[in-house]
Fold this protein.
Amino acid sequence: MSNPYAKLPNWAEYGLIPLVNLIVAFFVAGLVVLLVGENPLEAAYHLVNGAFGRGEYIGFTLYYATTFIFTGLAVAVAFHAGLFNIGGEGQAYIGGIGVALACLYFDQTLPWFVVFPIALVGSIAFGAAWAFLPGWLQAKRGSHIVITTIMFNFIASSLMVYLLTRVLKPLGSMAPQTRTFAEGGQLPKLDWLLGIFGLNIGNAPFNVSFLLALVAAFGVWVLIWRTKLGYEMRVMGHSPGAARYAGISESRITIIAMMISGGLAGMMALNPIMGEQFRMQLDFVQGAGFVGIAVALMGRSHPFGIIPASILFGMLYQGGAEIAFEMPTISRDMIVIIQGLVILFAGALENMFRPAITAALAGFAGRRAAVTQSKGA
């Protein structure tokens, strides 16, 4: 009997299995659409057209994808060290404080290209500091990272409410948000990028943080697969016993991996705060920290898999809004169900089809070897 978790070729591990899971997820989603009396093919058309049908739609899709790249990378870095960081939501909230403070202090005196790196450092520092605490608690006190990161999400949310209602809210304002940033706190759009292809992004908030997300993805790839620290993280994630035998400090790797993960999650705040809202508002994260878990799972925790997975979820967010508009029977709740199915098959059931795929590939390889041997004879 074949081992369902046997090593597969990279094209099957990172391409075929996620593709099969995705096809099954959309098939089940189509059955759900059929149950409410709508045509699944029409819904699929509106989903794709709403995400890629015109330049503005593509701009919104890539805007959402930018956010998910950051949170997906955050989850992936922790995964490689054997840590399940589900605190990206809270780390992004706290990272947003670093972004907002930089903009509030410098937006009226410095240009955006000077404020941007200051805000970037602030987002990384604040997010990393918030992730340091759960990492330290697991490394030094044995507290489980899942429990502590969940609780820190709630603490971060409450802290955000306090800051935006008591500290950072302008005098005379009733809305729980900071003041609108001046031009120095606003990131320019990437209209020129899509303009190369003759597309107009219109009102889409597609901005330069997308380029930063691509740089971050490349940086994570270098970190994980081209540095000693990344090797130590992978060893600990694969076998903590082997890591200890090799003299790798489990406490050090746990804390460092969580801080890097938190810094990446904090960088997500640049996209909505400086790129769209031009202020910090409550709920600016909008669940992106949790979507990052699904993105990392679908991308197999590889940066170059996380990018297309993020675009997929950007398509679900943007195209889902178009479905809800064009087909009123399919409400936003139905769109959440479709997104949930993708998460289910990409995450909890990701190995459902692995045994069959492994057996099929082994059988194909055996037949090919037999044919080669018979020709040689």
